[in-house]
Design a protein that fits this description.
Layout lengths: L2 E7 L8 E7 L6 H11 L3 E7 L4 E7 L4 E2 L3 H13 L8 E6 L2 E8 L2 E7 L4 E2 L6 H5 L7 E3 L3 E5 L3 H6 L4 H4 L6 E7 L6 E7 L4 E4 L3 H15 L3 E6 L5 E8 L2 E6 L1 E8 L3
Amino acid sequence: MPHYMVVDAFTDQPFKGNPAAVVMDEPGRDDAWRQAVAAEFRLSETAFLTPRAAGRWGLRWFTPTVEVRLCGHATLASVQALLTWDKLLRGGEAVFETLSGDLRCREQGGWIRLDLPAAAVKPVPAPAGLLAALGLAADRPVHADAEDLLVEVADAAALRAVAPDFKALAQAPCRGVCVTAPGADGADFFSRFFAPRVGVDEDPVTGSAHCRLGPFWGARLGKAQLLGRQLSARGGEVRVELKGGRVALAGQAVVVTRGNLWA
């Protein structure tokens, strides 16, 4: 009978940040079962953990509709779940074997630190229909990497006003679309993240997006340590440290429920 937890990530308050389900996987389960479990939870991501050698875990992430190669908030939630299950000591390191390679993660003073691959974006012409689907003017700058698109707006007010046509946005040729603006009130940058193509209309706080937002704003601001704030309805903050080809993300997490899967 698999154990699970639901963990709110990138927050120190229940019902804020980004909720992820974390499931302790069992032998004999297949991907159809994992996808069905993720669809049942209906959260932006469900993480599945499999014990490996000491201190190492297999980790996979599923949205309600597809498996993805990288998810930051569900990785942070997985560390919190291991701590709560007493499978990881405070201050200890967990190494996750994933589709994005080995990810080393550690709890430090109540914060969970994730070592993730950095992603560099470059300017691109806006794909047909993208800016209209976001309700933005046709002159907004667009950047891209292999998975996501990044769109700039002027400020927090413009960012909060973005109201996508999700059916149209799902046609964009990417995993997701990150809309970002310069920060204020202690934050270096703001963002929102939309991924209707993979079953997530708006993600509350997106760790993997900060793997590209960090280098993007770090270069603009001339900083290696930044604070990102995601302006979704639930909201959350991500500490970002640039380390060459890697990005260290740090956040907090709160367990809100735990139980067993009976199917």
